[in-house]
Each structure stands twice: as structure tokens, then as C-alpha cells.
Amino acid sequence: MNVADSIRLSSVLEQIGYLPIGQPEQADVIVLNTCVVRQSAEDKAIGRLSSLKKMKEQHPEKTICLMGCMVGVGDTTALKKRFPYVDIFSAPSDISTLLGYLLETSKVPTEDLRSIAQSILEKDEGFTLPLEMRGNAVSAFVPIVLGCSHACSYCVIPLRRGKEISRPPQEIIREIQSLAGQGIKEVTLLGQIVDRYGYDDPTYPTLAELLHQIHQVEGIERIRFLTSHPNWMSDDLLDSMQALPKVMPHFELPIQAGDDEVLRRMHRGYTSEKYLAIVEKIRARFPVSSIATDLIVGFPGETATQFQHSLDLLELAKPDMTHVARYSPRPGTYSTLHMQDDVSDAEKWERFRAVEHLQEQITTNINTQYLNNEVSILFEGRKKERWYGRTPTNKLVFVESPTPLIGKIKNVNITWTGPWSMIGEIAQ
Ligand code: SF4
Question: CA 395 to CA 407: how far, in whole Å?
Fold first, then answer.
């Protein structure tokens, strides 16, 4: 979501005359878009921000904007006191505060550009890709649900991104049409609980219905969405996915813990049994599909046995990928206020490594099944003399080819598989 916000902001700044530049020392406007989902991310953001202080003292004319989850949607008084050298504090996804400031302080250079800035502030004009993506980007993120109202006990996102708000469907479709017109072939719809799209406004379609509308957008070849929640992965949604060939059989379905007591204390609202039942249903309906999951290790009070239940669940569910995180208390969350962070750092690391080790084995086995099979790849870039792209199931595949492949969909025979990528040859 932060990447999507940064891309949007870059685009708007470019439209009013600014260009990206490699070094903060050379920049007129510096935006630090922050994530605080874990302590380590927040520490990194504070480190970067502190490193800008001296520069701002020497060059007070530079504009520094702190954006994102570190600012959040609430009162910024404490932040202003702590970082007085920051000019602007913007909530996640908020572009208008910085734009308004640049207009007010006459930092939008010409009359023409000022009128563009004004019209961006006043109306939704679709979305222009920023320069570095223009002409070469194949995939784009499209946020469709902002914020989250779920309140898992460990999660700071509802406190920082605010309550769940779905974007109007017309705005989403217009944006995707505009992206398709700029060469984008694949869109990934984003939401903290993306399957809850439309639940906050009875006049909006559901995600299942929205997928049908997006499917009609000419030029868009592939559609993905993330992140799902086991309680909202409806049969209607699965029906739409099955009916619409452009919707990729790729599921991002977090479990967070494999132990029911830990899940209860996480306020996740489901059991491991329910999770496994959904996984089974997905695999029955989509024999060729992939499931990625999220897992937290070292949640307050998580015993060795409870952690073992998480490993057991991974053995049973066999996800294609586990995004594993070590628990860290986040300010204001229920778990921070009411539970003790009592699993040692060393133990959290050990559990983290155990999950990574197990996942590597699971993914290696899954990927081996692709060997000598033909898969359809949408190519998105080039690295180390090879073109790379993704299977419908989101597996990364590298291919050698004398002709450029970016933006093309080709059938590829897989000749080598590893846990994190595969190699193939264009099928004749
Ligand atoms: S569903 Fe839970 S983990 Fe996901 S953003 Fe909402 S509160 Fe956080």
C-alpha cells in the first residue's frame, strides 16, 4: 500500500514540474513515506528522518514531508514537537496536504503548473504513471480499500490508516482504464482486507462483482488482489475467479498463527480448522493455484507447543509462500496494552528461522511440480541478462531470449526450479 501511495505521489509531483533525483541533498522536496507495522521499520524511518535534520538546518528552503503510517490519521502535535524541522505531515495515501503546501508557498513554479495542481486537488483525473514506470511498467497496484476496521490485537494499521473505506467503483474503473491506456497489463487490487470491498457502502458492488467490471477493461490481461481474510473469502468471490480467466489463481490468505488459543488472543476471528477448510476448498476448485500466507512468531504468551501448532499447520496447508514476522509490540494496540511481550528475542529468531526452513522445503517441493511443464508468463523486466515474469500463480520465471519480452505473455517450458524462482525456455 505504501509503494502504491509513493507511486501516486511521484506522479502528482511530476505533473506539477518536479522530477525524481538520486540524492536528498540535491532535492527541493523530500518525502519520507513510512511504515510502522513493525518496530524495525519504524526505527529505520526515524533514522532516515534524523539524518535529514542537519541538511534542513543548512538549507531551510528545502521542503521535508513525513508521510504514511508514522503520521497516521490522528493528531500530529507530538510528531511536530519531536521533528520541528519537518514542514508537512501527511497521513497515509494523503497527497493533497503536500500539494496544497507547495501551492501556498509558491513552490509550484509556473502559472500553468499551478492550475494543474489546482485541478488535481479538485477532481479525480485518472492516474498518470510516474516517469520511471512510463513505457516499461507492466503491472500496477490499485488501492481499492483504504484503512481497516478489523482491529487484530497486535496490529497498528487501523490506528494509523484509519477505518475501512472503499473507493468508489467508477473511480477504480477509470483508473484502471487509464493504466491500461498507458501500457499496464496487470493490476493488483489492494486492501488490508480486500475481500471486504464495498461492505462499507451498500451502493457499491462487492469484490466479486467489481472483478467482473474490471475484467471488461480492454488491455488488462491479468488481475490479482490482496490481502484476503479467511472470514471474507466468500463463495461468490471464488465463483467470480473461476468465471473470469483474467483473474489469476493466486491467493494471499494470512493465517498469522496455527494455534487456536493464539488466534483467539490475536482477535483474528477464525480457527485453524476453518483456515484449513478454506485452503481445501480453494485447492479443490483451483487445482492449479498458489496460496501465500502470513505468520507471526513469538506472539505474547506463545508457548513452544503453540508455536509447534503453527509449524504443523504449515505442514498441512502447504502454502507456496509464508511471509513470516517476529512479533513486536506496536504503540496503542491491544496486545501492547494488555499482554506481555514475553517471548525472548532469541526465541523469536529461532522460531522465525524454523518457519523459513520449513517453508523452503514446502516451496521447493511445490515448485518441482512445474518442471517440464508449460506455463504462461507475463514478462515484466530484465535482470542479469534474462527476461523475467510471473506465472498465473505468481511464480517468478527467468528466460533467455534475443527478442525483448517485456509486456508480452508467452508460454514457457520450465527447465529448472528452485524455491524462489524458476528458469524456462520459450515454448515453440
Ligand atoms: S485485518 Fe488485522 S492484521 Fe490486517 S490490517 Fe486489519 S487489523 Fe491489521
Answer: 16
